[in-house]
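## tool: complex_structure
## caller: assistant
## args:
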Amino acid sequence: MQQVFQTQFNTLSSLKTNMFNKDFLLTWDRSEDELKAVLTVAQLLKDMHKAGKSIRTFDTGLAISIFRDNSTRTRFSYASAANALGLGLSELDEEKSQIAHGETVRETANMISFLAEVIGIRDDMFLGEGHTYMREFGSAIQEGFENGILHQRPTVVNLQCDIDHPTQALADLMQLKNTFGSLENLRGKKIAMTWAYSPSYGKPLSVPQGVIGLMSRFGMDVSLSYPEGYGLIPDVIEQAKKQSAQSGGKFEIVNSMDAAFSNAEIVYPKSWAPFNVMQRRTVLLNSNDKPGLKDLEKECLANNAKFKNWECDEKKMKLTKKGEALYMHCLPADISGVSCAEGEVAKDVFEKYRLATYAEAGYKPFVIAALMFLTRMENPTEKMKQLLENNSGRR
Amino acid sequence: MQQVFQTQFNTLSSLKTNMFNKDFLLTWDRSEDELKAVLTVAQLLKDMHKAGKSIRTFDTGLAISIFRDNSTRTRFSYASAANALGLGLSELDEEKSQIAHGETVRETANMISFLAEVIGIRDDMFLGEGHTYMREFGSAIQEGFENGILHQRPTVVNLQCDIDHPTQALADLMQLKNTFGSLENLRGKKIAMTWAYSPSYGKPLSVPQGVIGLMSRFGMDVSLSYPEGYGLIPDVIEQAKKQSAQSGGKFEIVNSMDAAFSNAEIVYPKSWAPFNVMQRRTVLLNSNDKPGLKDLEKECLANNAKFKNWECDEKKMKLTKKGEALYMHCLPADISGVSCAEGEVAKDVFEKYRLATYAEAGYKPFVIAALMFLTRMENPTEKMKQLLENNSGRR
Amino acid sequence: MQQVFQTQFNTLSSLKTNMFNKDFLLTWDRSEDELKAVLTVAQLLKDMHKAGKSIRTFDTGLAISIFRDNSTRTRFSYASAANALGLGLSELDEEKSQIAHGETVRETANMISFLAEVIGIRDDMFLGEGHTYMREFGSAIQEGFENGILHQRPTVVNLQCDIDHPTQALADLMQLKNTFGSLENLRGKKIAMTWAYSPSYGKPLSVPQGVIGLMSRFGMDVSLSYPEGYGLIPDVIEQAKKQSAQSGGKFEIVNSMDAAFSNAEIVYPKSWAPFNVMQRRTVLLNSNDKPGLKDLEKECLANNAKFKNWECDEKKMKLTKKGEALYMHCLPADISGVSCAEGEVAKDVFEKYRLATYAEAGYKPFVIAALMFLTRMENPTEKMKQLLENNSGRR
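## result:
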């Protein structure tokens, strides 16, 4: 094995994981060792890819995706991960299917899974639904597996639900780890996860929830900030608080972008809809109440407009530690003067960190590949060893 | 070779087949040996998959699909089969193509087939069209092959046409073979292929036709049942009768679900549109006569409504042999109280057999893989031997 | 190495190319040696495929496609090439993406390219846009690569832009090379690239531009012909003239189909919209001026209708050398009495050459594969040697 990979491989060998045949839905369902294993495998796969090596671990097999909302980044990250590991991609396009007939999730889940290894699901629009759908899906294929319908138990990977966006948050964590040198170095560092103004409404809560739900595990000083009324799901806040206490970090909620930015080493300004608006919106969407939705949008946009000063600009960046905090975003950002008149971030701030945000996004394919690897390989350490030792390159 | 596979391999070796480079359109075009070879190869591939082995037989190559109607199960079965054998999937989406320009089938067939191994086609909506389209497609690529345009002759696999649904019927037959122990054990067993009430109309005839067209080959006692006026294509009925006589089975048509169920060991209650309605509907669809279609739908639904008692419920199930007949369905079923108010099958009956219907569906990917294998491999026995002897697993 | 491949391999070895990690956008950007290398690799890959060999050169990797216009042939050619070389296909469907948010090309280009090898783009509808988009895309991934965002520099392959359609023109050139025996034999041969009548308007200019831009490199006698007012992009005309002079060929523009056909050994009758109409159309499309577009269409169709006699019929074919010129078309053709009442070509002429046009189209998958091969392999000659020497077949 090349020395460059040996250290990471040793780290992986030292971690205790129990992820084989388990769904990956929320980061806070997994142990710290398991999260570290995800980061380590993702980094190993990324470094191998960069070195021109093949990271193929499957001869054949399907990676199925179900996107219930538009997506570019996550779609391509998933497609890239599947292909790199040797899986074929098959997308369930619900419009082209017979699911409208009133077919149950239970049935669909089994029907598409006979030869599947992984099912990636994105379902982030309706509060209370995405995560529930993934759980139902997981139960259905578990039943199918236990009854001999499915030869193997495929694993569900959450590609964004109403509660968490684990592949994004884990990619964000890799960006932090590599920027600051190690996970250990993140202890005590202040991260400002803050609402920002956007000329749209109804953006999902899962990105900020995913970030506070993950960063609070590693002793960081998490400052969550939003205008009054723009709260997140209370249970997730409680989870973050608890984890923060356990990991020796801090957790605060403030109602000022300036306060959050003050002395922060990382800032994550990102728009989202208030929790209670998402609740009302879900009711209206489910009853297909178009006038109601129109009214809600109008009300919310008017409310948003009161907070146009929640923009990440040069002046606010000066409040951060040495004025040099790392700016983060899951992309695409609403950039003032580029993609909208007034948005989440000023043009010059974004431009300064633009390539850094691309690098942040660049971890996602490998995080997804790591989740596939760890949930599909019975002995991931042994398999990784084989991959590192017998490798003739991609071309 | 592992002993567990040896018996089936010996069976395969003993069968005489001539399927290489031949389209697979109707089961009654193929010899009994060929059908047995399909079942045997499908079972071998399924058992190998279950044992974690790779069933890859292609290094590269395209499996093309043309779906002219919505589909989930068949789409995923085809995608799964293609991937498992090592083929890449490429779907012809007629909406995104230039075919609307008035391009001929002859041309399209060649244009998409330069590197294709298999073309799977589903075209089941218009009576008199699907099968004809597949034949035309086959002739076009035959011409292309004979004239050196195509390097090889891809094979067309019928994924459901107006006449037959061979991959479904063969999956159904595998379910029967495995439930009752052998094909030989099916002799004399009564199967009730019966119409059932559904709140929709215009369901294709190919499932019941496929079932009677295949089960009549194996000495079964086929009871076809439907309300007066809900007949199938007369030629298919004739074919089934003839085969029934040849195979030492029985064939009857009755107009009562109770009569069909009486002493049956297998029941297959499934809605379909009357043959003459499909004829009228095809004319209306081709002339794009929307008011005419609306009227026809109204008339048919009203007619269907007279037969709401054609539901497979507990009481009818009691009429079957020991009250324990095997319930079959191609899925999705119209389940009373689940996917509709009143439908083909009562909720409790369906629930009792739900997992059995999933298992039934689970044969389809391997039936399709077997058709790909047998129509693409010049010497399928030799190839199967290699697959069984040199196999290092899927991961 | 088999003798049959040795000659072509020797040719490839003798050519000087510099295509690794370079985009392939316009044929006139590449040297004569490079174009010859494309033809040689395409022919080798085609012959290997015909001989049942595998041409797989990648273990894993993505070939991404972006189709901003409908396509069948090019879509399947690209899918076929990608699969044959071992790449997975991933299509960017802009409707299902988040790109509508106002995301920049710069960002999208990087987001989808983390594990990509090749990006095939078709963008041919708006004059002044397709080629520009491809250049922007290329610059964006170059920046990403130079800044360590991308591990490798994927290459952009032009699958048709507003200026050139290089994969079509190169397939056309292969058809000519094989019909007349060698590139050298094309010297002095007259090719009539001529406008033809079609009942539609707004067909792209890139096919005729691609043909005159490529055939003028090989000493051919290029006769470009169109009704007054149906000119091509002036810069492309100038390029073709210059190349014609350099290669010892001829270049003329005439306003008569008969004049172009006279003594021609190759005819390529194909409809296109006048350059100035495409300019006006682009303005209207960009301002989404639907009444304006309707008016323009009406005006153009009325103008087109004056030139219905620009049809390639038996009588005009008699004007060609010995009445036996080779008829070419990129397909689908507007065939009088088949796909339209009056069109580009008479039914009997098309039928005579129909299989020849299929053969012409049959080069395209291999031309695309050759472009992938030459832009991705650092040492294509060495790689080709390996492919020829170690090959166990596709099945």
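## assistant note: Chain C has two domains: 3-164+364-389, 168-361. Residues 120 and 157 of chain C are 5 Å apart (CA to CA). Handing back to user.
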